[in-house]
Amino acid sequence: MAYKDFYHLLLESFCQPVELFTGSRNVPFTLYAEEAKLFVRNGKDNISRIDPKEVAAFVERFEECESLLAKDYQDVTFKASYLLAAMKYLTEQNASVVRFQSEELHNSEVQYKKWLKANPEGYVLNLLKRSEISRELDPTNSTCLHLASCSSVNNERSYSHSEPFTGNDYFKICSTNLCELEQEAIKITKLGIVKKHSCLKDKVR
């Protein structure tokens, strides 16, 4: 991602309010743009403005050190925790392959459902969390590619777990590109061929 005109990118990307969470402390806040100005509303409903100059100073420091710790920016801005969260959000939004795993992503269940709603023509890889840590596991039958609209992988009534899609034994990796998602599955599982659900019967390899 290019950061040179980061302030204007933020104005465009947050023209509608987006709820985010700061990195280390996981504190909720809302970032939004109004009348070509950027604002933060924290959990206590206090609103403050993020100035273009402090964004520019933040970007300059980030390009020097690439630190993801807000404390490394305290001499240039006290809004670094918000800006780092916004940067992470934009990077994930632009990623071709997105992971939804409860141990990695706060509110992963909600984020996954948002992705499905935003990408109805996309694809979902369903696989066991243990696929990445167990060499003894045979992932052949537990790894499957689906359409994002497939009811068999997204039927909430089939589960009793409070986070059925990303918080139990399985997690999801999503993409709008089937080929890239299949390659990601092969990289994780080391399978030669990844099983496709019947919903993908009309999709060629």
Entry summary:
With 205 residues, this protein is an alpha+beta fold. It has helices at residues 6-13, 52-65, 80-94, 108-118, 178-189, and strands at 18-21, 28-34, 37-42, 47-50, 97-100, 123-128, 144-147, 170-175, 195-196. The protein has two domains: 6-94, no CATH class; 97-200, no CATH class.
Helix content: 25-40%
How many separate domains?
2
Q: Give start-end ranges of low-pLDDT stretches.
A: none
Query: What share of the residues does DSSP label as strand, in percent?
Result: 15-25%
Order of helices and strands: HEEEEHHEHEEEHE
Largest sheet, strands/sense/barrel: 5 strands, mixed
Number of strands: 9
Radius of gyration, CA atoms, in whole angstroms = 19 Å
How many angstroms does the end-to-end distance come to?
30 Å
* Structural classification: alpha+beta
Judging from the principal axes of the Cα atoms, what is the shape? elongated
Helical segment count: 5
> How confident is the prediction overall: mean pLDDT?
87
Strand order of the largest sheet: 5-8-6-7-9
Question: Can you characterise this structure?
Answer:
- By secondary structure, the protein is of the alpha+beta class.
- The chain folds into two domains: 6-94, no CATH class; 97-200, no CATH class.
- It is built from five helices and nine strands, in the order αββββααβαβββαβ.
- A five-stranded mixed sheet has the order 5-8-6-7-9, with helices on both faces. A four-stranded antiparallel sheet has the order 1-2-3-4.
Ordered list of secondary-structure elements with their pairings:
Blueprint lengths: L5 H8 L4 E4 L6 E7 L2 E6 L4 E4 L1 H14 L14 H15 L2 E4 L7 H11 L4 E6 L15 E4 L22 E6 L2 H12 L5 E2 L9
Parallel strand pairs: 7-9
Antiparallel strand pairs: 1-2, 2-3, 3-4, 5-8, 6-7, 6-8
